[in-house]
Amino acid sequence: MASGGLQLLGFVLAFLGWIGIIISTAMPQWKMASYAGDNIVTAQALYEGLWMSCAMQSTGQIQCKVYDSLLKLESSLQATRALMVAAILLGLIAVFVAVTGMKCMKCMEDDQVKKMRMAVFGGVIFIIAGLAALVATSWYGNRVARAFYDPFTPVNTRFEFGSALFIGWAAASLAILGGAFLCCSCPRRETSYPPTRGYPKNAPSTGKDYV
């Protein structure tokens, strides 16, 4: 029962992490900057994500523009896109594999060993997906921080971490933690020893010796 509860907890955490990775990938707030002109009326917030850039005016109006060409994007942004998409696809595979190996499901009930292996395999895929998302968000965040502290970067064009980065870091951590719980939910096999052979008892002596 303890392993079943740990397995369910791991799947829930990993699934929530996978949903968070999807949300983080779709959000445009990967980095954000605030700019104010000569008066407060021209104040606006600038956001940039993996797929589009947005500007929110002080009046609350938001305008977004999708990036025109994939080939014009920086190679680091393309790599971040690829890692996040790969994390989503791996998470989708991990969901189906882990569900098959869950104890509460009736699939593969006739072979419990294979069923447990499926749950562990799903946990491993969740860990790989979480690591891919963690690398992508950390790499992007490092670029934002380096550009922010670069003295040659104009003050009005310096960006800070957006909310999508924090969601991505939390989601990647949940996916890795949930995958680890799934891997640890497999009960250890008990060592089986061969049954002890009984030695034949000596027949009681009758007191008669035969020559």
UniProtKB/TrEMBL annotation:
> Which spans of this chain does the record mark as coiled coil?
none
- The portions of this protein that span the membrane are 7-27, 79-99, 119-141, 161-184
Q: Report the superkingdom from the record.
A: Eukaryota
Q: Does the keyword Membrane apply?
A: yes
Q: Drop me one GO molecular function for this one.
A: structural molecule activity
CC terms in the record's Gene Ontology section:
bicellular tight junction; plasma membrane
Q: Where in the cell is it found?
A: Cell junction, Tight junction; Cell membrane
Q: Which InterPro entries does the UniProt record give?
A: Claudin, Claudin1, Claudin_CS, PMP22/EMP/MP20/Claudin
Where is it mainly found? other
The way this protein sits in the membrane is described as: Multi-pass membrane protein
**Key words, A-Z:** Cell junction, Cell membrane, Membrane, Tight junction, Transmembrane, Transmembrane helix
Family to which the UniProt record says this protein belongs: Belongs to the claudin family.
As for what it does, the entry says: Claudins function as major constituents of the tight junction complexes that regulate the permeability of epithelia.
The protein's name: Claudin
